[in-house]
Amino acid sequence: MSGGHAHGGSAAAHHRWRLAISFALISGFFAVELITGLVSGSLALISDAGHMAADVVTLGAALVATCIATRPDTTGRRTFGSYRAEVFASGIAVLVMLGVAVYIVIEAVQRADHATAPVLQAMLLVGALGLIVNLVCLALLHSVAGESLNVKGAYLEVLGDTLGSVGVIAAALLIEATGDSRWDTVIALAIALFVAVRALLLGREVLAVLGQHAPAGMKPREILAALEGLDGVAEVHDVHVWQLTSGMNVATAHLVRAGDAAGDPLAAATALLRDRFGIAHATIQVETTPGTDCEGADW
C-alpha cells in the first residue's frame, strides 16, 4: 500500500515557492499586456499576451500538481501515490503552448493583407516591463528546471514568453526604423515557431514518462550487466526501469541466486541500484533455483 512507503517528495514539491512567486508575477502582468495589446493593435503584443496566458495556466497547473502529488492517499488504491499529477500538468503545458502557437499563426494569416500600424510607444513600454517580469521568473526557475519535468514545463513557458517580450521590443524598433508594420506579423510568427518547437520537445519527454520508458540517460542493459556482476548472482531477468515522476525512478528485477552463494544478494542489489543508478525504489525478487522457469508474470 502507498501508505507503507516514505518518500521525500517529488523534485517539484521542494521548489513550490518558486512556482508560486512566478505565478503571482506572471498573473499580475498578463492583464496589463492583453489590454495594451488590444488597444495598441499590435499582433506581437497580443501573441505575447496569449503566451503569457499560457504561462498563467501552466504555472497554475504546476502548482496544483505539486499539491496533489504530495497529498496523502486516503483510498488505499493509489499504491504509487499521486505523483503522476505533475507529469499530466506538463502535458497540459504542451497543449497550451501548441494552442498559443496555432492561434498566433491563424491571426497572422488573417492580418497578412491588411496590417495596421501598432502604437509603438505602448509596445516598447509593455515589452520592456514584460521582459523584466520574465527574467525574474527565469532566475527563479532556471536552477531547478533540470530536476523536475513539471518545473521544466513551466520554465520553458516562461522562456518562450521572455523571447516574446524581446520580440515585441524588436518589432517596435524595426517598425520605427523601416516604417513597415509587417514586422509586427513577422516577429509574431517567429514567436509561434519557437513556442511550437519547445512544446514538441517537452511533449516527447512527457510521452516517454507516460509510456514508462527508461529514464533519460539510463540504459537498462547496463543495469542488467551490473546486477549480473554481483557476487552470488547466477542470472538476472525481468529487469524493468521507469520514471514515476521527475526525481523518482523505479525498478523491478528478478535475481537467480547461485547455488554455492553464501549470502543473499538482495542487499547488494538494492545498494547498487540506489548508489550507482539513482534508483531509490527497487523491487527485487530473488529466486533460488538456477535454470528453472521463472514463476513471475506470464506476459
From TrEMBL:
Keyword Membrane: yes
UniProt GO MF annotations: zinc ion transmembrane transporter activity
Predominant subcellular localization, coarse grouping: membrane
Listed transmembrane segments: 21-46, 83-106, 118-141, 153-175, 187-211
Protein name stated in the entry: Cobalt-zinc-cadmium resistance protein CzcD
Subcellular location: Membrane
Gene Ontology cellular-component terms listed: plasma membrane
Family: Belongs to the cation diffusion facilitator (CDF) transporter (TC 2.A.4) family. SLC30A subfamily.
Keywords from the UniProt entry: Ion transport, Membrane, Transmembrane, Transmembrane helix, Transport
Cation efflux protein transmembrane domain residues: 20-210
InterPro entries found in the cross-reference section: Cation_efflux (IPR002524), Cation_efflux_CTD (IPR027470), Cation_efflux_CTD_sf (IPR036837), Cation_efflux_TM (IPR058533), Cation_efflux_TMD_sf (IPR027469), CDF/SLC30A (IPR050681)
Span of domain Cation efflux protein cytoplasmic: 221-287
Protein's UniProt keywords contain Secreted: no
Membrane topology: Multi-pass membrane protein
